[in-house]
Amino acid sequence: MVSVAQSGVRWDGAVNAWHIVGSVYRMGRREWLTEVGWQQMYDDGVRTVIDLRTLREQQPRDTDPQVSPEVTSRFEIVHCPTEDPDSEEFTELFGPYLKDPAHYADYLRIFPDKLAAVFQAIAAAPGGVVIHCAAGRDRSGIIAVMLQNLAGVDDEEIVRGYQQGMRGINERHRNHPAPHAHDGFLEDEALERMLASRTASLLEFVGHLDTAAFLADNSLSVEQVAALRAKLAAPAVPVQPKPAARRRRTLRN
C-alpha cells in the first residue's frame, strides 16, 4: 500500500482544505474563498472546481467575501451533486445529510450514478482539481476515500484524511456556528468519542471497498479510469504559504 499523507493547504478564506493525492484536493464550500484565495489556488495548479452540493445549497451567505466574476472565470466549475435530498430512502437512512462513514456503503448503493459522475468529471478535468461540498467532511470525504483507495493509499492515511476533515470543520464551528442545529461545535472529549466511533465505521467501509470495481460497474470506460489514475499520479504543485506582498498583488489575467 502507498502512504501519502494529506496535507493542509493555505488558500485565503478556504475552510477544511486538504491535498488528497496526486493533483486532487478537497475543501468546504468555495464561497468562503477570498479573491486572494482563488489566486493562490490557481498558483497551485488548480483549474477545475467540482461542486458536490445540490442546487438548494448553493446560495450565497451574507458573510461570504465579495469575489469578482473575472477571478473565478479562469476555473472550470462543474456541478456534480452526489445525492437527491428528496429521496425517501436517503432521508430514512441519513436524516438531513450524510454525516457518518457507517452510511457510506448505503450512499454508494443509493446514488451510484451520481457518484460515478464525479469520477468522470475528475478524469476529464484540466489541471489540478478541487472537490468540495458544504463542510468539506463527508461528501468530499467519501470521494477522497475512494480516490485514495484507487491510488493504493494505506488505511492509516485514509483514516488520517477523514479525521482531518472532521477536526477541520469542528474547528470552524468553534467561532462560526453551523447554519443548522445538527452539527454544532464539539469540545475535545466529545470530539474524540465521535472520532473513535466514526473511524471504526470508516475502516469497516474501506475493508470492503473496491473503487476500481465500482467504476467499472458504473460505466466508466478503460480510458476514463486510466485518465483518473493519471490524475492521481500527477505531482501536485508544492503548497507553500505565500509571502504577504504576493498575497496583496493584483490578480493576473
From TrEMBL:
Top-rank taxon, per record: Bacteria
Domain Tyrosine specific protein phosphatases per the UniProt entry, residue ranges: 109-177
A matching Pfam family: Y_phosphatase3
GO molecular function, a single term: phosphoprotein phosphatase activity
Signal peptide: none
SUPFAM superfamilies, per the entry: (Phosphotyrosine protein) phosphatases II
Protein name: Protein-tyrosine-phosphatase
Organism: Arthrobacter terricola
